[in-house]
Specification:
Elements (H helix, E strand, L loop, with lengths): L6 E7 L3 H12 L6 E8 L5 H11 L3 E6 L4 H11 L4 E4 L5 E2 L3 H11 L4 E10 L10 E2 L13 H10 L8 E4 H6 L11 H10 L5 E13 L4 H4 L4 H19 L4 H18 L7 H12 L3 H28 L2
Parallel strand pairs: 1-2, 1-4, 2-3, 6-9
Antiparallel strand pairs: 4-8, 5-9, 6-7, 6-8
Helix pairs in contact: 5-10, 7-9, 9-10, 10-12
Length: 322
């Protein structure tokens, strides 16, 4: 019987003592056994480090790396650098995966020589006062679970069903090495850039609709605590500039189209930052728009559309109250 190929699971860890063991156990309890687990402790100070030390001692396939706090990107990049597996998977340290995740998905990657396999997820709340804003990640309306997608079809489908989070796919590690793909350091929203680069680099892909991933909504997570911060805003601006640079370096129309779509979505999201100084916000967006003519035209059209909608609504209200 052929040995199962090694899969590396990279888990960035920062102050998740309450949830860490449950996360790691969900990997140790996999039906699939040829797994390398790399936990990168990003300067935790809540006792997470002590938990990792115990796992490191007790399990031969767990490797613990400790670094000063540099952010999730740096932690994941450490994992990529050290990964020995044929396949690589990124797991957030407060979330869980089902026990049949790898036993179901890795054989499909092997059988069909896939570069990537995407899958579904569902969310759960950790605390009575924590609201779930995105209950499921289900892309079965776009993807056929029995189909092998070539690059053109995969990008076309992903354009309508884009999810930046790398926890929702397993990737052939050589894709990262061959295309020099890493996470952008010193920002959040780094997944937007990373996943776009990954998607335009794959040639064979599949989708599994089962919710293998269980995402925890909790107080104090990165995205909840920094959702409206200037750091979040500036991070998105950085990602936008990187996407423009990426677009100018390629000629494939399908790749350009999905990059353009991500640019348009991100620039729209900048306007939702109500706590950012308006002059600073307008200045940043203006500087960005002049660097990307296509998006500038798109955005002018979008704003004109909104103005017309508002104007039409005002006219209807006038007639209504006459």
């Amino acid at each position: 019987m052929m040995k199962e190929p090694l899969i590396t699971v990279v888990i960035p860890v920062y102050n998740v003592r309450e949830y860490l063991s449950e996360c790691i156990e969900s990997v140790l309890n996999q039906c699939y056994k040829n797994i390398e687990i790399i936990c990168v402790d990003d300067g935790s100070n809540d006792g997470s480090s002590e938990i990792l030390k115990q796992y490191d001692i007790q399990h031969f396939n767990i490797k613990v790396i400790t670094q000063k706090n540099q952010g999730q990107s740096a932690a994941r990049n450490q994992g990529i650098e050290l990964a020995q597996g044929k396949y690589i998977y990124f797991l957030d340290s407060d979330d869980l995966i089902l026990s049949d995740t790898f036993s179901s998905l890795v054989p499909q990657m092997e059988k069909y020589h896939l570069d990537i396999i995407r899958f579904g997820a569902k969310s759960f709340s950790s605390g009575k006062n924590v609201a779930i804003t995105h209950s499921t990640y289900d892309f079965s309306d776009e993807f056929n679970t029995k189909k092998i997608y070539n690059k053109e079809d995969f990008l076309r489908k992903s354009k309508n069903a884009f999810s930046a989070s790398p926890v929702l796919y397993i990737i052939r590690k050589d894709i990262l090495a061959e295309n020099n793909i890493l996470f952008e350091p010193n920002i959040i929203h780094e997944d937007e850039l990373f996943t776009t680069k990954v998607f335009i680099s794959v040639n064979r892909a599949m989708y599994a609709s089962k919710f293998y991933y269980h995402r925890r909504y909790r107080e104090g997570s990165t995205m909840t605590s920094k959702a409206q911060s200037k750091f979040s805003f500036d991070s998105k601006v950085t990602v936008l500039y990187r996407l423009i640079e990426l677009k100018t370096s390629i000629t494939d129309l399908n790749e350009i189209m999905i990059i353009e779509d991500r640019i348009n979505n991100l620039i729209n999201s900048l306007y939702t930052y109500s706590k950012i100084d308006s002059r600073y916000k307008k200045s940043c967006i203006k500087n960005f728009l002049v660097k990307n003519t296509t998006t500038m035209y798109y955005f002018k059209a979008f704003r004109l559309f909104i103005k017309r909608k508002i104007y039409g609504l005002k006219n209807r209200l006038k007639h209504l109250y006459r």
